[in-house]
Amino acid sequence: MISQPKAVCLLSGGLDSATCLAVARREGFACYALSFDYGQRHAVELGAARRVAAAEGAADHIVLRIDLLQFGGSALTGDIAVPKNRPEAAMAAGIPPTYVPARNTIFLSFALAWAEVLGASDIFIGVNAVDYSGYPDCRPEYIAAFETMANLATKAGVQGGARMKIHTPLIRMSKADIVRLAAKLGVDLANTHSCYDPGPDGAACGACDSCVLRRKGFREAGIADPLELRA
Fold this sequence. Notes:
- This protein has helices at 15-26, 45-55, 88-91, 103-118, 140-153, 155-159, 175-185, 209-221, 226-230, and strands at 6-10, 30-37, 60-65, 122-124, 165-167.
- The protein is an alpha/beta fold.
- Strand 2 (30-37), helix 2 (45-55) and strand 3 form a beta-alpha-beta unit.
- The longest helix has 16 residues, at 103-118.
C-alpha cells in the first residue's frame, strides 16, 4: 500500500484556508494543519480552525502560540481601529491597518520547520492576490521568493533531496470562485469565520473588509452564506 504524501496546510479558520485545505486533500495529501494564536483580536477564528480541521479529516492539527501583541503595529494586534464600511476602491488602494507585519513570513517559516520534521515537501497556503486587502505577502512574487529561500535553507534542499513546494491554489481566484470551489469540494463553510472585529459573542461585525469581501463572494457566486442563514 502506497502511503499518502504529507503536506503542511496553514489554517486560519477562514473561508480561503478551509478551501485550500480541501484542495490539498483532493490532491491526495495527508494534511497536517497549522494554526496560530498570535494575539489576534479575532481569536475566535481558532475555534473555526479546529472545526474545519476535524471536518476535513486533517491528520493532525497544531495551534502554536506566538505573541505578536509584543510588537503591535496592526489593527489585529494593537490599539488601532479596524476599518469599517470601506468601498472596494479604498480596499484596493494601499496597505490597510489590518496588515500584520511579516505575518505570512512568520507562518510559512513555522510551516517549513514542521514540514522538515515530517519529511514533507509540500506546504499549502490560501493566499489570494485578486480579492485581497492589499497585503504584500499575498502576492505571487512573494510566494516564489519564499519558496526559493526554503530550498536554500533546508536540509533536503542542501543535500539534494525533494524540493520544497509552496502551493497557492487560490492565488488567482476571485472570492466568488473560491466560494464555488468550496461548494464543489463539499466544504462546510458554516464552520468558518472571516470577521476581523467580531463581537464578544463571536458574531461577525458585517462591516470590516473581510466581512465585506466574504459577502461579495457569496453574492457573486449565487450561493447563500450558511453563517448568515444561521444568524
